[in-house]
Amino acid sequence: MGITFEETKLKGAYLLKPERFEDARGFLSRSFSAREFEARGLNPCVAECNISFSKSKHTVRGMHFQHSPHAQAKLVRCTRGAVFDAIIDLRPESETFRQWIGEELTAENRHLLYVPEGFAHGFQTLVDDAELFYQISTTYTPGSEGGVRWNDPAFGIEWPEREVVIINERDRTYPDFRG
Q1: How far is CA 71 from CA 6, 62, 118, in A?
Q2: How far does Cα 52 stand from its chain's mean position?
Q3: Domains of the chain
Q4: Residue 137 near residue 91, CB atoms below 8 Å
């Protein structure tokens, strides 16, 4: 029993697919192993865990990050419902700088997305009552947060739904990216 790590087109970002041990009772899956993360050069630290719940379909949260030296790696899983989870590589030295990917994370597929430090992260809910669980490598540091606008043309994220039902003022009004 282990985890299948699929590197995405963004350097250092992975889609994780837990392998199942099934029997008559149901199944058991490993969703995290510090040893397996370290073997791939991924940050295995977990300093905080957060839950994000959104009541309405087509809610957008993001695109958020923390500035260095408080940058965060995240391991994200949808525990209820379904979301389109998007990340952007904001590391200027990276060969995938300014590129994005999106993955559908659902309670049913149980996939996880590993988001390295230096990435912006956000999501759009695909159903009502969606919930995400995050494992985060460093604690939230007020004053270190940052973000880019969810629909900034510098990135061109192709969200599944253009109609956004709910988005907060901060996420809606981030200025155009100038990196």
Answers
A1: 23, 15, 6
A2: 12
A3: 3-172 (2.60.120.10)
A4: no
DSSP state of 166: B
* pLDDT tens per residue across span 23-77: 899 889 889 999 999 999 999 999 999 999 999 999 999 999 999 999 999 999 9
Decide if 67 is catalytic: no
Instruction: List, as one string, the DSSP characters of 34-99.
Output: HHHHHHTT------EEEEEEE-STTBEEEEEEE-TTS---EEEEEEESEEEEEEEE--TTSTTTT-
* Catalytic residue flag (residue 140): no
- Tens-place pLDDT, residues 141-168: 999 999 999 999 999 999 999 888 899 9
Q: Which of 14, 58, 64, 111 is catalytic?
A: 64
Catalytic residue among 58, 114, 121, 134: 134
